[in-house]
Automatic annotation (TrEMBL):
Family the UniProt entry places it in: Belongs to the TPP enzyme family. MenD subfamily.
Major enzyme class: transferase
Catalytic activity: isochorismate + 2-oxoglutarate + H(+) = 5-enolpyruvoyl-6-hydroxy-2-succinyl-cyclohex-3-ene-1-carboxylate + CO2
GO molecular function, one term: thiamine pyrophosphate binding
UniProt gene name: menD
Name under which the protein is recorded: 2-succinyl-5-enolpyruvyl-6-hydroxy-3-cyclohexene-1-carboxylate synthase
EC number: 2.2.1.9
Length: 590
């Protein structure tokens, strides 16, 4: 009897490992039996029933490591649950390999059970699609298996990183079959397996000389300048920090760094963290208007920055987005594609000696210092003993060790991190889902990231995001070691209170009912279901204590941080105080 199914699957699995895949996330199913058995013999495996959570788990591994993980599911609707993760992978540029088992061609469009069209299931959300076909003993078919594996892995990273879909068809029997090892195809198979997958090496990216020349020429003509750093990948942090520090020093520019840029924590340079607050004051916009803004990474999260560059007084801009275009508001003078760190390093090397001390840079730093001092005083004045929303991120960052890893959710948490935690010398890696900027899959993604990191990880998200990813708690349960899941519980989608909709008294009732949509749920039961540690806290001291416990625990812990009502109003007051103080500081004699 032939055992071609098993041999075929093992050849593909070994080729994935040979090409750089380190982890597999498997959702149990029948049609995927040969591949599940094969992957488990060559890769570290995590088993998760929920395919959606499984894909986000693998995405988190890729986000933290820069290497693709493979996700496996059976045929039918199961792979369809991968779509949200595939969308995020495409928009964030995270490598991810999706491997679906399928029925053979002869039962397609014949009402066969658990059979649907899985061809190019993810459309443009997948960077590439490969059909592995039905196991075939022909020598050419056998030889194609390791090549397709190598090509699929390469396609997760080159030319643009994202999700890649491989569809693999199998006929029954699906289980290993007794075999004497004397099938006619065995000698050729053994030779192919021994040779391994081909090495596919992409070209090394390098900045275009004309891009470097344009950047240098423009900077020299624009002495009042800023570098605006939006979301950037955590694995690129060391090179980015070195290059940005060198460029800021050589150009005399000021760095406006968001928390997700990997530059805000652990980099000592001319840096401003309060720019979203400062730009709320029209007089500060006038005083701080740069000759040139250089945007690096994904578009900034700051609403004030985006509003400024969309308006009639928008500063001139050059965008360094990395490998993919990024200028959603339009109007940039140039977009310089390619490796950001290498481009800035090359430009810094060509810029002459550091320019003389600039009053412009001093102006930014004066406003920055005044803004953070004002925030501290205003926050202290609001202290009541209860836990307030604006206190969570500072307490959390203070609890993290140097070099710690924080994953931050979208909606309010990513903005609160920028508004509440100033730049500092302690290095911190910040993982984020700013690709498609959705709120789902965050817990599963954090759990996946934790499995490829050596130290503890803390994830900060809102209660609505946590409910969206309740299935992700099963993924968290698969983690060994400390994983702190901090849920800011303000009972609903409070970001809507900060939008124009939420500020309109005539729509107050609609906002609360249709958008904030308070749910009244607690998380203790969910934590117990999945065997996680749990703490409910409602004071700053209790949150600090729970964080210390979670970061030293031997299993993940969910911290439900119940915050006082009125967080949106408090946020508006704090930002107004920061803007007012920044403006006053520029008016004061210096």
């Amino acid at each position: 009897m032939s055992d071609l199914h098993t041999a075929w699957a093992r050849l593909f699995a070994r080729s994935l490992a040979h090409s750089g895949v380190g982890h597999a996330v498997i959702s149990p199913g029948s049609r995927s039996t040969p591949l599940a058995l094969a992957l488990a013999r060559v890769l570290a495996v995590t088993v998760l029933h929920d395919e959606r959570a499984a894909a986000f788990f693998a995405l988190g591994q890729g986000r933290a490591s820069g290497r693709p993980s493979v996700v496996l599911a059976t045929s039918g609707t199961a792979p369809g649950h991968w779509l949200p993760a595939a969308m995020e992978a495409r928009e964030a540029g995270i490598p991810l390999l999706l491997l679906s088992a399928d029925r053979p061609w002869e039962v397609q469009d014949a009402q066969a059970s658990q059979t649907t069209d899985q061809t190019r299931l993810f459309g443009s959300n997948a960077r590439a699609f490969f059909d592995l076909g039905v196991p075939d003993p022909h020598p050419a078919a056998l030889a194609a298996v390791p090549r397709i594996a190598a090509q699929a892995v390469l396609a997760t990273r080159y030319p643009l990183a994202g999700a890649v879909h491989v569809n693999a068809r199998f006929r029954k029997p699906l289980e290993p079959q007794p075999s004497g090892g004397d099938e006619p195809w065995r000698p050729r198979y053994d030779a192919i397996a021994k040779a391994g997958a081909p090495r596919l090496i992409p070209p090394r990216p390098a900045p275009a000389p004309e891009a470097v020349a344009l950047l240098v020429e423009t900077v020299r003509a624009a002495p009042r300048g800023v570098v605006v750093a939006g979301p950037l990948p955590a694995p690129d942090a060391p090179a980015l920090r070195k290059a940005v520090a060198r460029f800021v020093k050589a150009s005399g520019y000021v760095l406006l760094a968001e928390a997700t840029s990997q530059l805000r924590f652990g980099l000592e340079t001319r840096m401003v963290g309060a720019f979203d607050a400062l730009l709320r004051a029209p007089e500060l916009r006038a005083a701080l208007h740069p000759d040139l803004a250089i945007e690096i990474g994904a578009p900034a999260v700051s609403g004030q920055w985006l509003a400024w560059i969309s308006g009639v007084d928008a500063p001139a801009r050059i965008v360094l987005p990395g490998e993919r275009p990024a200028d959603p508001v339009g109007g940039a003078r140039a977009m310089l594609l390619g490796p950001i760190a290498a481009l800035l390093e090359a430009a810094a090397a060509e810029l002459e000696a550091p320019p003389p001390a600039s009053r412009y840079a001093e102006t930014w730093r004066t406003a920055e210092a005044a803004a953070w001092t004002a925030r501290q005083r205003a926050a202290a004045g609001r202290a009541t003993g209860a836990l307030h929303e604006h206190e969570v991120a500072p307490i959390l960052c203070a609890a993290l060790p140097a070099g710690g890893v924080l994953m931050v959710g979208n909606s309010n948490p990513v903005r609160d991190l920028d508004h509440d935690v100033p730049p500092g010398p302690t290095p911190l890696a910040v993982l984020h889902q700013r690709g498609a900027a959705g709120i789902d899959g965050l817990i599963a993604g954090a759990a996946g990231a934790r499995t490829v990191l050596e130290g503890p990880l803390t994830v900060l998200l809102g209660d609505v995001a946590a409910l969206h990813d309740a299935g992700g708690l099963a993924a968290a349960a698969a983690v060994k070691g400390p994983l702190a899941i901090v849920v800011i519980h303000n009972d609903g989608g409070r970001i809507f209170e900060r939008l124009p909709l939420g500020r309109d008294p005539a729509l107050a009732e609609d906002c609360e009912t249709l958008f904030v949509a308070g749910h009244g749920r607690a998380f203790d039961g969910l934590a117990a279901t999945f065997g996680l540690g749990y703490a409910r806290v409602d004071t700053p001291d209790a949150l600090g204590g729970a964080l210390n416990e979670a970061l030293a625990a031997d299993r993940p812990m969910l911290i439900e941080a119940r915050v006082a009502a009125g967080g949106s109003a408090a946020r508006a007051a704090l930002l107004a105080a920061m803007a007012k103080a920044g403006a006053a500081a520029l008016d004061a004699p210096r």
